[in-house]
């Protein structure tokens, strides 16, 4: 199997103020960062072009949403992939738990937006994950499978897709899933890709973990064989981000965990 790249996606969410953004861009630009880690900066719409002008080309730029159409009804106030490409965006983050749970975006809508963004030449980062109720009821697998099946219904080619596992039951708690929790779910996703998409895509689609990633826990999380990087939220605008980017994980460092042996991720819900 070819070695997969390591990715860190910084989700700047609702960062405000050009001075704050200048400081973060300067910090990233002057810091010594691992050349083997691809860094994607997720930025709110109003600042995308501003950030693209400030960051060196080694940093990729992601929008935090887009719509499933370019023109026509229901597009007032929406942003299309064509607009994003015009200002130097190459990635878009879709299906984040904030949008699924607060704005009630359905699995179907997320999948339609992902497929359209891909058709217009953007790469997509799609978040999947289960709630506390889903997890405690033993529905982790079925919830993730439904989200993935919706994606597979609309996405024809998975080459430019990245998946992020967000344990919604841990978000906002300040606690991250333990490494074996993250590995268990990502191992399930990897196996699902093999069974329902292809072995090639199972081997090559990057799988990221997102959920209270810090400079303290990133090393042990990254040691898991199916963790190909992180989606970083609260720490994406702090110095912690630099240490997370510099996790410096090599394949030989990975723990000898058989990713094919799926450990039920809902067996230890209180074991963060």
Could you please describe the fold and organization of this structure?
One of its GO terms (molecular function) is triose-phosphate isomerase activity. There is one protein chain. By secondary structure, this protein is an alpha/beta fold. The chain has a single domain (6-246), classed as Aldolase class I (TIM Barrel, Alpha-Beta Barrel). Helices cover 37% and strands 14% of the residues. It has an eight-stranded parallel sheet with strand order 7-6-5-4-3-2-1-8. Helix 5 (107-119) runs parallel beside helix 7 (140-154) and helix 7 crosses helix 8. The longest helix is centred in the last third of the chain and has 18 residues, at 179-196. It starts with 5 loop residues before the first strand and ends in a 27-residue tail after the last helix.
Keywords:
Triosephosphate isomerase, TIM Barrel, globular, Triosephosphate_isomerase, 8 strands, eight-stranded parallel sheet, TIM_sf, gluconeogenesis, alpha/beta, 11 helices, 272 residues, 37% helix, single chain, triose-phosphate isomerase activity
Quick structural summary:
The protein has 272 residues and is of the alpha/beta class.
Give the topology, please:
Blueprint: E1 6-11, H1 18-30, E2 37-43, H2 48-54, E3 60-63, H3 81-86, E4 91-94, H4 97-102, H5 107-119, E5 123-128, H6 132-136, H7 140-154, E6 161-165, H8 179-196, H9 199-204, E7 207-209, H10 218-222, E8 229-232, H11 240-245
Parallel strand pairs: 1-2, 1-8, 2-3, 3-4, 4-5, 5-6, 6-7
